[in-house]
Protein backbone atom coordinates (compact mmCIF):
# COMPACT_ATOMS: atom_id res chain seq x y z
CA UNK A 1 0.00 0.00 0.00
CA UNK A 2 1.29 3.42 -0.91
CA UNK A 3 1.16 6.40 1.39
CA UNK A 4 -0.59 9.20 -0.43
CA UNK A 5 0.42 12.76 0.36
CA UNK A 6 -1.93 15.53 -0.67
CA UNK A 7 -0.34 18.94 -1.09
CA UNK A 8 -1.60 22.20 -2.50
CA UNK A 9 0.17 23.64 -5.53
CA UNK A 10 0.02 26.93 -7.37
CA UNK A 11 -0.72 25.22 -10.67
CA UNK A 12 -1.90 21.67 -11.44
CA UNK A 13 0.46 21.71 -14.44
CA UNK A 14 3.22 20.37 -12.15
CA UNK A 15 1.51 17.00 -12.22
CA UNK A 16 1.84 16.65 -15.98
CA UNK A 17 5.62 16.69 -16.33
CA UNK A 18 5.55 13.15 -17.69
CA UNK A 19 4.62 13.48 -21.35
CA UNK A 20 5.17 10.00 -22.73
CA UNK A 21 5.37 6.38 -21.81
CA UNK A 22 6.83 3.23 -23.33
CA UNK A 23 4.35 0.86 -24.86
CA UNK A 24 4.49 -2.64 -23.40
CA UNK A 25 3.55 -5.85 -25.19
CA UNK A 26 2.59 -4.60 -28.63
CA UNK A 27 0.72 -7.84 -29.30
CA UNK A 28 -2.17 -6.88 -27.04
CA UNK A 29 -5.42 -6.82 -29.02
CA UNK A 30 -6.24 -3.30 -30.23
CA UNK A 31 -3.82 -1.86 -27.65
CA UNK A 32 -1.81 1.14 -28.74
CA UNK A 33 0.85 3.14 -27.01
CA UNK A 34 0.17 6.83 -26.98
CA UNK A 35 1.73 10.13 -26.15
CA UNK A 36 -0.27 11.49 -23.30
CA UNK A 37 -2.58 14.48 -23.22
CA UNK A 38 -1.31 17.17 -25.56
CA UNK A 39 0.32 14.78 -28.02
CA UNK A 40 -2.71 12.67 -28.86
CA UNK A 41 -3.93 13.28 -32.38
CA UNK A 42 -7.27 15.05 -32.31
CA UNK A 43 -9.33 15.21 -35.48
CA UNK A 44 -12.58 17.10 -35.83
CA UNK A 45 -13.64 14.89 -38.73
CA UNK A 46 -17.19 13.61 -38.52
CA UNK A 47 -19.91 11.79 -40.37
CA UNK A 48 -21.90 14.20 -42.48
CA UNK A 49 -25.55 14.86 -41.81
CA UNK A 50 -26.33 13.00 -45.02
CA UNK A 51 -24.90 9.83 -43.51
CA UNK A 52 -27.29 9.52 -40.59
CA UNK A 53 -30.66 10.53 -39.17
CA UNK A 54 -31.54 11.23 -35.54
CA UNK A 55 -34.66 9.51 -34.19
CA UNK A 56 -36.19 9.80 -30.72
CA UNK A 57 -36.61 6.51 -28.85
CA UNK A 58 -38.18 7.96 -25.68
CA UNK A 59 -38.59 11.28 -23.88
CA UNK A 60 -39.61 12.39 -20.39
CA UNK A 61 -37.28 9.94 -18.67
CA UNK A 62 -36.07 10.58 -15.12
CA UNK A 63 -32.26 10.61 -15.21
CA UNK A 64 -31.79 7.67 -17.62
CA UNK A 65 -28.66 5.62 -16.95
CA UNK A 66 -28.54 2.55 -19.20
CA UNK A 67 -30.20 1.20 -22.34
CA UNK A 68 -30.36 -2.40 -23.54
CA UNK A 69 -31.55 -3.56 -26.97
CA UNK A 70 -34.18 -6.31 -26.98
CA UNK A 71 -34.38 -8.96 -29.72
CA UNK A 72 -37.84 -7.81 -30.79
CA UNK A 73 -36.67 -4.30 -31.62
CA UNK A 74 -37.62 -2.74 -28.31
CA UNK A 75 -35.48 -1.42 -25.47
CA UNK A 76 -35.08 -1.51 -21.72
CA UNK A 77 -34.03 1.77 -20.08
CA UNK A 78 -33.05 2.27 -16.45
CA UNK A 79 -33.64 5.49 -14.56
CA UNK A 80 -31.19 6.28 -11.78
CA UNK A 81 -34.10 7.15 -9.49
CA UNK A 82 -35.25 3.52 -9.63
CA UNK A 83 -37.50 3.15 -12.67
CA UNK A 84 -37.20 0.52 -15.38
CA UNK A 85 -38.90 1.31 -18.69
CA UNK A 86 -39.86 -0.96 -21.57
CA UNK A 87 -40.00 0.78 -24.94
CA UNK A 88 -41.63 -1.34 -27.61
CA UNK A 89 -40.77 -1.33 -31.30
CA UNK A 90 -43.45 1.33 -31.92
CA UNK A 91 -42.07 3.69 -29.26
CA UNK A 92 -44.71 3.00 -26.60
CA UNK A 93 -43.19 3.35 -23.10
CA UNK A 94 -44.34 1.18 -20.19
CA UNK A 95 -43.17 0.88 -16.59
CA UNK A 96 -41.73 -2.44 -15.45
CA UNK A 97 -42.85 -3.40 -11.96
CA UNK A 98 -40.84 -5.35 -9.40
CA UNK A 99 -37.57 -3.41 -9.48
CA UNK A 100 -35.69 -3.86 -6.19
CA UNK A 101 -35.42 -0.85 -3.85
CA UNK A 102 -32.43 1.36 -4.68
CA UNK A 103 -30.38 3.90 -2.75
CA UNK A 104 -30.97 6.86 -5.08
CA UNK A 105 -28.95 9.60 -3.42
CA UNK A 106 -26.29 11.69 -5.18
CA UNK A 107 -24.57 9.22 -7.56
CA UNK A 108 -26.42 6.19 -6.21
CA UNK A 109 -29.45 4.55 -7.78
CA UNK A 110 -30.38 2.10 -10.52
CA UNK A 111 -27.47 1.65 -12.91
CA UNK A 112 -26.94 -0.88 -15.68
CA UNK A 113 -29.32 -3.31 -17.35
CA UNK A 114 -28.07 -6.12 -19.58
CA UNK A 115 -29.55 -9.27 -21.07
CA UNK A 116 -28.44 -12.80 -20.29
CA UNK A 117 -26.57 -14.28 -23.29
CA UNK A 118 -29.44 -16.77 -23.69
CA UNK A 119 -32.16 -14.16 -23.21
CA UNK A 120 -34.09 -15.44 -26.23
CA UNK A 121 -34.63 -18.70 -24.33
CA UNK A 122 -34.80 -17.62 -20.68
CA UNK A 123 -35.93 -13.92 -20.73
CA UNK A 124 -33.38 -13.22 -17.99
CA UNK A 125 -32.09 -9.71 -17.35
CA UNK A 126 -29.50 -8.37 -14.90
CA UNK A 127 -29.68 -5.09 -12.98
CA UNK A 128 -26.83 -3.30 -11.20
CA UNK A 129 -27.83 -0.78 -8.54
CA UNK A 130 -26.90 0.85 -5.24
CA UNK A 131 -28.56 -0.95 -2.33
CA UNK A 132 -28.71 0.18 1.28
CA UNK A 133 -28.77 3.63 2.85
CA UNK A 134 -26.52 6.61 3.55
CA UNK A 135 -24.59 4.82 6.27
CA UNK A 136 -24.20 1.44 4.60
CA UNK A 137 -24.54 0.82 0.87
CA UNK A 138 -22.99 -1.22 -1.92
CA UNK A 139 -23.15 -1.88 -5.65
CA UNK A 140 -25.43 -4.87 -6.06
CA UNK A 141 -26.59 -7.20 -8.84
CA UNK A 142 -30.04 -8.76 -9.13
CA UNK A 143 -31.38 -10.94 -11.90
CA UNK A 144 -34.97 -11.67 -12.89
CA UNK A 145 -37.13 -12.93 -15.69
CA UNK A 146 -38.72 -10.17 -17.76
CA UNK A 147 -42.43 -10.87 -17.87
CA UNK A 148 -45.33 -8.77 -19.12
CA UNK A 149 -44.45 -5.35 -17.69
CA UNK A 150 -43.05 -6.93 -14.51
CA UNK A 151 -39.95 -8.65 -13.21
CA UNK A 152 -40.48 -12.23 -12.09
CA UNK A 153 -38.44 -14.44 -9.77
CA UNK A 154 -36.14 -11.59 -8.75
CA UNK A 155 -32.95 -12.82 -7.09
CA UNK A 156 -30.14 -10.74 -5.58
CA UNK A 157 -27.00 -12.59 -6.60
CA UNK A 158 -24.14 -10.32 -5.54
CA UNK A 159 -23.14 -7.34 -3.41
CA UNK A 160 -19.78 -5.59 -3.30
CA UNK A 161 -17.89 -5.96 0.00
CA UNK A 162 -17.35 -4.14 2.20
CA UNK A 163 -20.30 -1.79 2.40
CA UNK A 164 -19.45 1.90 2.43
CA UNK A 165 -20.90 5.18 3.62
CA UNK A 166 -22.04 8.02 1.34
CA UNK A 167 -23.35 8.37 -2.18
CA UNK A 168 -20.22 8.50 -4.33
CA UNK A 169 -18.46 6.30 -6.89
CA UNK A 170 -20.40 3.10 -7.39
CA UNK A 171 -19.22 2.04 -10.87
CA UNK A 172 -22.15 -0.14 -11.91
CA UNK A 173 -21.47 -1.34 -15.47
CA UNK A 174 -21.79 -5.01 -16.44
CA UNK A 175 -20.81 -7.21 -19.39
CA UNK A 176 -20.76 -10.93 -20.15
CA UNK A 177 -17.73 -12.79 -21.44
CA UNK A 178 -18.04 -15.66 -23.93
CA UNK A 179 -17.31 -18.19 -21.17
CA UNK A 180 -20.58 -17.14 -19.52
CA UNK A 181 -18.99 -15.22 -16.66
CA UNK A 182 -20.20 -11.76 -15.72
CA UNK A 183 -18.10 -8.62 -15.22
CA UNK A 184 -19.07 -5.78 -12.87
CA UNK A 185 -17.24 -2.48 -12.46
CA UNK A 186 -17.02 -1.25 -8.87
CA UNK A 187 -16.14 2.29 -7.82
CA UNK A 188 -13.89 3.01 -4.86
CA UNK A 189 -16.54 4.92 -2.95
CA UNK A 190 -14.89 8.35 -3.32
CA UNK A 191 -13.90 8.69 0.33
CA UNK A 192 -12.20 5.28 0.23
CA UNK A 193 -9.88 5.80 -2.73
CA UNK A 194 -6.84 4.12 -1.16
CA UNK A 195 -8.85 0.87 -1.01
CA UNK A 196 -8.55 0.64 -4.81
CA UNK A 197 -4.93 -0.46 -4.25
CA UNK A 198 -5.85 -3.30 -1.89
CA UNK A 199 -6.87 -6.65 -3.36
CA UNK A 200 -8.42 -7.60 -0.03
CA UNK A 201 -11.63 -5.69 -0.78
CA UNK A 202 -13.86 -5.11 -3.80
CA UNK A 203 -13.82 -1.29 -3.99
CA UNK A 204 -12.21 0.22 -7.09
CA UNK A 205 -12.13 -3.08 -8.94
CA UNK A 206 -13.33 -4.91 -12.00
CA UNK A 207 -15.07 -8.00 -10.64
CA UNK A 208 -15.83 -11.32 -12.33
CA UNK A 209 -18.39 -13.90 -11.29
CA UNK A 210 -20.54 -16.70 -12.65
CA UNK A 211 -24.00 -15.93 -13.98
CA UNK A 212 -25.42 -16.91 -10.59
CA UNK A 213 -23.04 -14.67 -8.62
CA UNK A 214 -20.48 -17.24 -7.46
CA UNK A 215 -16.72 -16.68 -7.61
CA UNK A 216 -14.99 -18.50 -10.50
CA UNK A 217 -12.02 -20.65 -9.53
CA UNK A 218 -9.74 -19.09 -12.16
CA UNK A 219 -9.83 -15.45 -10.98
CA UNK A 220 -6.34 -14.12 -10.13
CA UNK A 221 -6.74 -13.86 -6.33
CA UNK A 222 -8.83 -16.87 -5.27
CA UNK A 223 -7.73 -16.68 -1.62
CA UNK A 224 -7.33 -12.95 -0.95
CA UNK A 225 -10.36 -11.73 -2.91
CA UNK A 226 -12.00 -14.35 -5.13
CA UNK A 227 -14.08 -11.92 -7.22
CA UNK A 228 -11.33 -9.43 -8.12
CA UNK A 229 -10.26 -9.49 -11.78
CA UNK A 230 -8.31 -6.19 -11.88
CA UNK A 231 -7.76 -3.34 -9.45
CA UNK A 232 -6.61 0.27 -9.08
CA UNK A 233 -9.78 1.74 -10.65
CA UNK A 234 -11.55 4.94 -9.59
CA UNK A 235 -15.14 5.05 -10.85
CA UNK A 236 -15.53 2.92 -14.00
CA UNK A 237 -18.77 3.68 -15.86
CA UNK A 238 -17.98 2.36 -19.32
CA UNK A 239 -17.40 -1.34 -20.05
CA UNK A 240 -17.38 -3.34 -23.27
CA UNK A 241 -16.07 -6.74 -24.36
CA UNK A 242 -14.83 -7.14 -27.93
CA UNK A 243 -16.93 -10.07 -29.19
CA UNK A 244 -14.19 -11.20 -31.59
CA UNK A 245 -11.17 -11.15 -29.27
CA UNK A 246 -12.85 -11.08 -25.83
CA UNK A 247 -10.60 -8.13 -24.97
CA UNK A 248 -12.03 -6.11 -22.07
CA UNK A 249 -12.15 -2.33 -22.35
CA UNK A 250 -13.14 0.06 -19.62
CA UNK A 251 -13.51 3.82 -19.18
CA UNK A 252 -13.31 5.45 -15.79
CA UNK A 253 -13.76 8.92 -14.40
CA UNK A 254 -10.65 10.74 -13.30
CA UNK A 255 -10.84 13.47 -10.67
CA UNK A 256 -10.14 16.91 -12.19
CA UNK A 257 -8.60 15.60 -15.39
CA UNK A 258 -7.36 12.08 -15.99
CA UNK A 259 -10.41 10.24 -17.36
CA UNK A 260 -9.10 6.97 -18.80
CA UNK A 261 -9.69 4.36 -21.48
CA UNK A 262 -8.09 1.13 -20.27
CA UNK A 263 -7.43 -2.25 -21.84
CA UNK A 264 -8.04 -4.56 -18.88
CA UNK A 265 -6.07 -7.72 -18.26
CA UNK A 266 -6.43 -10.32 -15.55
CA UNK A 267 -4.69 -9.45 -12.29
CA UNK A 268 -3.32 -6.09 -13.46
CA UNK A 269 -3.13 -2.91 -11.38
CA UNK A 270 -4.43 0.24 -13.11
CA UNK A 271 -2.87 2.59 -10.62
CA UNK A 272 -5.52 4.71 -8.93
CA UNK A 273 -4.75 6.63 -6.76
CA UNK A 274 -1.01 5.88 -6.74
CA UNK A 275 -0.70 7.21 -10.30
CA UNK A 276 -3.03 9.61 -12.07
CA UNK A 277 -3.04 12.31 -14.73
CA UNK A 278 -5.62 14.29 -12.78
CA UNK A 279 -5.61 16.47 -9.68
CA UNK A 280 -8.11 16.85 -6.86
CA UNK A 281 -11.07 19.19 -7.42
CA UNK A 282 -9.39 21.73 -5.13
CA UNK A 283 -6.27 21.69 -7.30
CA UNK A 284 -4.37 19.63 -4.72
CA UNK A 285 -2.08 16.87 -5.95
CA UNK A 286 -3.45 13.39 -5.34
CA UNK A 287 -0.19 11.71 -6.33
CA UNK A 288 3.03 13.18 -7.74
CA UNK A 289 3.32 10.15 -10.02
CA UNK A 290 1.90 9.46 -13.45
CA UNK A 291 3.62 6.08 -13.72
CA UNK A 292 5.12 3.55 -11.34
CA UNK A 293 6.50 0.03 -11.78
CA UNK A 294 3.86 -2.68 -11.84
CA UNK A 295 1.04 -0.30 -12.77
CA UNK A 296 -0.65 -0.12 -16.15
CA UNK A 297 -0.87 3.01 -18.28
CA UNK A 298 -4.16 4.03 -19.91
CA UNK A 299 -4.49 3.54 -23.64
CA UNK A 300 -5.93 7.04 -23.79
CA UNK A 301 -6.83 9.71 -21.27
CA UNK A 302 -8.45 13.12 -21.19
CA UNK A 303 -7.22 16.36 -19.62
CA UNK A 304 -9.46 18.21 -19.04
CA UNK A 305 -11.99 15.54 -18.19
CA UNK A 306 -14.89 14.80 -20.50
CA UNK A 307 -16.58 12.76 -17.69
CA UNK A 308 -16.59 9.40 -19.46
CA UNK A 309 -19.77 7.36 -19.13
CA UNK A 310 -20.95 4.68 -21.51
CA UNK A 311 -18.65 2.82 -23.90
CA UNK A 312 -19.39 0.98 -27.13
CA UNK A 313 -17.33 -0.74 -29.81
CA UNK A 314 -18.75 0.00 -33.26
CA UNK A 315 -18.32 -2.95 -35.61
CA UNK A 316 -20.72 -2.20 -38.44
CA UNK A 317 -19.92 -0.90 -41.94
CA UNK A 318 -23.12 1.16 -41.88
CA UNK A 319 -21.44 4.46 -40.91
CA UNK A 320 -18.36 5.09 -43.06
CA UNK A 321 -15.10 5.44 -41.18
CA UNK A 322 -16.47 4.38 -37.80
CA UNK A 323 -15.91 0.62 -37.86
CA UNK A 324 -13.54 -0.61 -35.16
CA UNK A 325 -13.68 2.58 -33.12
CA UNK A 326 -14.73 3.00 -29.53
CA UNK A 327 -17.60 5.38 -28.84
CA UNK A 328 -17.14 7.17 -25.53
CA UNK A 329 -19.92 9.17 -23.90
CA UNK A 330 -19.02 12.48 -22.29
CA UNK A 331 -21.24 13.83 -19.52
CA UNK A 332 -19.31 17.06 -19.01
CA UNK A 333 -18.23 17.39 -22.64
CA UNK A 334 -21.82 16.77 -23.79
CA UNK A 335 -20.76 14.77 -26.82
CA UNK A 336 -19.70 11.39 -28.18
CA UNK A 337 -16.00 10.90 -28.84
CA UNK A 338 -14.77 8.17 -31.20
CA UNK A 339 -11.35 6.69 -30.40
CA UNK A 340 -9.35 4.67 -32.93
CA UNK A 341 -6.66 2.60 -31.18
CA UNK A 342 -5.57 0.54 -34.19
CA UNK A 343 -2.38 2.53 -34.81
CA UNK A 344 0.64 3.62 -32.82
CA UNK A 345 -1.20 6.64 -31.43
CA UNK A 346 -4.91 6.82 -30.54
CA UNK A 347 -6.89 9.15 -32.77
CA UNK A 348 -9.95 10.98 -31.48
CA UNK A 349 -12.78 12.25 -33.63
CA UNK A 350 -16.17 13.76 -32.93
CA UNK A 351 -18.35 11.89 -35.41
CA UNK A 352 -21.72 13.41 -34.47
CA UNK A 353 -21.30 17.15 -33.80
CA UNK A 354 -25.04 17.76 -33.79
CA UNK A 355 -25.56 15.15 -31.02
CA UNK A 356 -25.22 17.23 -27.86
CA UNK A 357 -26.18 16.62 -24.24
CA UNK A 358 -24.99 14.89 -21.07
CA UNK A 359 -24.31 11.48 -22.60
CA UNK A 360 -24.79 8.83 -19.90
CA UNK A 361 -24.83 5.78 -22.16
CA UNK A 362 -24.00 4.87 -25.75
CA UNK A 363 -24.66 1.47 -27.34
CA UNK A 364 -23.92 0.03 -30.76
CA UNK A 365 -27.07 -1.74 -31.94
CA UNK A 366 -27.43 -4.88 -34.03
CA UNK A 367 -28.60 -3.06 -37.19
CA UNK A 368 -25.66 -0.62 -37.27
CA UNK A 369 -27.51 2.22 -35.54
CA UNK A 370 -26.39 3.73 -32.22
CA UNK A 371 -28.49 4.34 -29.11
CA UNK A 372 -27.63 7.33 -26.91
CA UNK A 373 -29.00 8.33 -23.50
CA UNK A 374 -28.98 11.97 -22.40
CA UNK A 375 -29.08 12.09 -18.62
CA UNK A 376 -30.12 15.67 -17.85
CA UNK A 377 -32.40 15.93 -20.84
CA UNK A 378 -34.25 12.70 -20.00
CA UNK A 379 -34.12 11.52 -23.59
CA UNK A 380 -33.05 8.47 -25.57
CA UNK A 381 -32.23 8.78 -29.26
CA UNK A 382 -31.06 6.60 -32.08
CA UNK A 383 -28.45 7.54 -34.68
CA UNK A 384 -29.61 5.76 -37.82
CA UNK A 385 -27.30 5.37 -40.82
CA UNK A 386 -28.85 6.51 -44.09
CA UNK A 387 -28.77 3.82 -46.76
Written account of the structure:
By secondary structure, the chain is mainly β. The protein has a domain at about 10-15 and about 60-305: TolB, C-terminal domain (Neuraminidase, 6 Propeller), CATH 2.120.10. About 0% of the residues lie in helices and about 35% in strands. The chain contains one helix and 25 strands. The strands form six sheets. It has a five-stranded mixed beta sheet with strand order 1-22-21-20-19, with no helix packed on it. Strands 2-25-24-23 form a four-stranded antiparallel beta sheet, with no helix packed on it. It has a four-stranded antiparallel beta sheet with strand order 3-4-5-6, with no helix packed on it. The longest helix is centred in the N-terminal third of the chain and has 4 residues, at about 120. It is globular.
Oligomer: single chain
**Approximately how much helix is present in the residues?**
under 10%
User: What CATH architecture label of the domain at 12-16 and 60-306 applies?
Assistant: 6 Propeller
* Low-pLDDT windows of residues: 1-41
Supply Rg. Answer: 20 Å
User: Could you tell me the mean pLDDT?
Assistant: 89
Topology order in helix (H) and strand (E) letters: EEEEEEEHEEEEEEEEEEEEEEEEEE
Helical stretch count? 1
The third-level CATH topology of the domain at 12-16 and 60-306 is Neuraminidase
Strand tally is 25
- What is the straight-line distance between the termini? 55 Å
List the strand order in the largest sheet. 1-22-21-20-19
CATH C-level class of the domain at 12-16 and 60-306 is: Mainly Beta
Q: CATH H level of the domain at 12-16 and 60-306: which superfamily?
A: TolB, C-terminal domain
Percentage beta strand: 35-45%
What is the molecular shape?
globular
Structural class: mainly beta
Largest sheet: 5 strands, mixed
Amino acid sequence: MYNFITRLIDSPADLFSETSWTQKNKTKPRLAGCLIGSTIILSMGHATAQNYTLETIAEGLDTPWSIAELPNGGFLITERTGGLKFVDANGLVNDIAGVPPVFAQRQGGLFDVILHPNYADNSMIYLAYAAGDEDSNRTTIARARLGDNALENLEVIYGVTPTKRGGGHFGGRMAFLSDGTLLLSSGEGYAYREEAQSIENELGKLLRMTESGAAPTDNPYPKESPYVYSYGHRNPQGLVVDPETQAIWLTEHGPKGGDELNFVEKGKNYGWPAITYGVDYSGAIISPYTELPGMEQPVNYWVPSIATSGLALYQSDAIPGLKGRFLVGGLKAKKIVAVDVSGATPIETEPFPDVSGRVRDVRALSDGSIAVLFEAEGRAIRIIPNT
